[in-house]
Target: nitrogenase
Amino acid sequence: MNEKIEEVTALIQKQCLWQFFSRSWDREENIEGIMTMTGKILNGDKINLVTPADKAFYSDAKFLAAEIQKKMPWLFELDKSGVLELIEGVKERLLYIAVKKSRNCELNLSNY
Model:
């Protein structure tokens, strides 16, 4: 599973700008919202788009889910719990890279 997590993380780092929002809370919110929505799309779960944020996360998640399905054929070997494990692993990895270990000192400035 770790290789799959790294493969999806690398895809996101190459193609998705939402991981680079200017504040740590923005990054955390985007990673949580988009990856959760991506998991629902990949698992064929029902999606309720109630808020504008839900719709924004859905649009990014739809693109990401399509890219994962197109470029990673091993995805279709995973059951629903495997997809959730993959998504949770990618979330943790992205939070580590884009928030916790980021060298961008402006991420946590309160006056900016």
The radius of gyration is 14 Å. Residues 80-100 form the longest helix (21 residues). The mean pLDDT is 91.
